[in-house]
Amino acid sequence: MAKIVRVGVTFPPDLLKDFDAVIGKMGYENRSKAVQDAVRLFVSERKWLQEEKGTQAGVLMLLYDHEVKGLESTLTHIQHHYAHIICSTMHIHLSESDCLEAIAVKGNATELRRLSDELTAKKGVKILKTMLISI
């Protein structure tokens, strides 16, 4: 049996509350199993995206906190850098602080990955969901 490694993770209180509510409804007996499953899902999705090649098209769905200083400017700058693969964007105000952007993309899989990775890594980006198809 593989050795278990213990790690510490910090959560914003609201996220932990939502996480606990969801895993409670799903019947998880503890957070560890739920976190392991979430990490496995993240890793498998990212592995799949990393292995794709050729031309792809799709949408990057980006949820972020627009109150994080400089984030909107940074996101806009990144998108301008990738203008050759971004077809369109739609910005939606969800709440006082949360914004959703749908970024329609078409281009080389490697460049789409770079765009996705750059956006995901920024502080204040809560979720980035990548939905791509090979064309």
Distance between the termini: 42 Å
Give the neighbour order of strands across the main sheet.
2-3-1-4
The CATH architecture of the largest domain comes to 2-Layer Sandwich
> Which secondary-structure class do the elements indicate?
alpha+beta
Regions with little confidence, pLDDT below 50 for 5+ residues: none
Radius of gyration: 17 Å
Number of separate helices: 4
What is the CATH T-level topology of the largest domain?
Alpha-Beta Plaits
Order of helices and strands: HHEHEEHE
Q: For the record, what is the CATH homologous superfamily label of the largest domain?
A: ACT-like. Chain A, domain 2
Counting DSSP E segments of at least 2 residues, the number of strands comes to 4
What's the helix and strand layout?
Layout: H1 13-26, H2 31-51, E1 55-65, H3 71-81, E2 86-93, E3 98-108, H4 109-120, E4 125-134
Antiparallel strand pairs: 1-3, 1-4, 2-3
Outline the structure in words:
It is a single chain. This protein folds into 2 domains: 13-49; 53-134, ACT-like. Chain A, domain 2 (Alpha-Beta Plaits). The chain has 4 helices and 4 strands; from the N terminus they run ααβαββαβ. It has helices at residues 13-26, 31-51, 71-81, 109-120, and strands spanning 55-65, 86-93, 98-108, 125-134. The longest helix has 21 residues, at 31-51. The protein is globular. The mean pLDDT is 90.
